[in-house]
Design goal:
This protein is α+β, with helices and mostly antiparallel strands and 98 residues long. The protein has a domain of 56 residues. β2 and β3 form a beta hairpin. The longest helix has 13 residues. It is globular.
Amino acid sequence: MTNQEQPVHLNNHHTDTLTAIFAHPTSHNVRWHDAISLLEAVGTVEENHSGKFKIHVGDQMEFFDRPKGHDCGEQQVVDFRKMLKAAGFEPTKPGHED
């Protein structure tokens, strides 16, 4: 799942969210809370005084606004996917678990 030296253990909820983020076509049902929980498990998430979220995953760092609803916007999902992929995270295909 990751090529990092220290493997990160993802629970089933995180794995489901990772799969949703990598879904094609891009899922419109990725909940903000679930995405933040996953990103906290694999990196760091800080909310600053202006309400923006500073997210570090691997060597990637981005700022995000909380969406108005419960679900992430399509561009946020694409950006999360890019960050996760650059850090070596992708969903495991069924039958290929280690």
